[in-house]
Write a structure and sequence with these properties.
A five-stranded parallel sheet has the order 7-6-5-8-9. A four-stranded parallel sheet has the order 2-1-3-4, with helices on both faces. The chain is α/β, with parallel strands linked by helices. It is 41% helix and 14% strand. The protein is globular, with a radius of gyration of 19 Å. It starts with 12 loop residues before the first helix and ends with a helix. Bound molecules: phosphoric acid mono(formamide)ester and norvaline (NVA). The site of norvaline has 9 residues, from helix 6.
Amino acid sequence: MKKDLLTLNDLTRDDLEKIFEFSTKLKQERGKVSYTPLSGKSIGLIFAKSSTRTRVSFEVGVNELGGTALYLDQGKMQVGRGETIADTANVLSRYLHGIVIRTFSQAGIEELARVASIPVINALTDDYHPCQIVADLLTIKEYSGKVDSSIRVAFYGDGKSNIANSLILAAKLTGIELVICSPESVGMNQNVAGNAPNVIWEKEPIKAAEGVDYFYTDVWVSMGFEEERAERMKIFQPYQVNSKLFEYAKKDAKFLHCLPAHRGEEVSADVMDSPRSIVFDEAENRLHVQKAIMSMLF
Ligand code: CP
Ligand code: NVA
């Protein structure tokens, strides 16, 4: 594997298979077998944005692997008062054995990773959320037995969000068929999709639902975009994932959401709380996948 995990472009298909295998083993052995590759190691968890799943799953993951996790509020670090990212990277490399970071700028974490001598894991930026999507792919593998071109995923909502971008990279990595369903004024990031034949943009919600195995959605207002809330509520309204869409999908289609969810906005309450919803399996898999990734990188 590469030194850092900043986007899914850092993983090969072979890396992904190794993560699946390792995560599954860690999942099965959790609480039964002690595995402590991070013993004696300290991992910095830098957060500039809110978090429930990511913070807790990384902290618990580091603890379970025998390491020590340090939660660092980016707003309270000197980087917020003018210290450069490069100086921060150099200093932290002298203390820590790995960095997990959730922040705004993808370019910022790329700079951090470039200068740091220790591995850096992206725990969400405005542009990408790779750990989330690896957990989603493991969840798909658990339910469908495979992650390949026979699987169709339709993402509804903000086609340019960190989740949509990361799903596009996942489609390029695995061959899954991905439909990004978003308004014409939003579309998807064509520079991320390139000319991948298995990534399609579709503005018509019903059309996008045809033959779908997994519906996926995310909040309409991502962290950092709160000022656009009123406008976003309006433009994404027709893109809610609700039970009507399931009539056009495969018979046993499932529902994925990275969470947090807003019932009545991007997903109807009946879908979110239905047996089709596998969002808590998905959330749980964050822990197992990140333990595997940290064992491999740190
Ligand atoms: N899905 C996810 O990253 O959740 P948090 O924002 O709660 O970490
Ligand atoms: N797109 C969302 C994902 C939250 C896990 C956000 O960035 O807020």
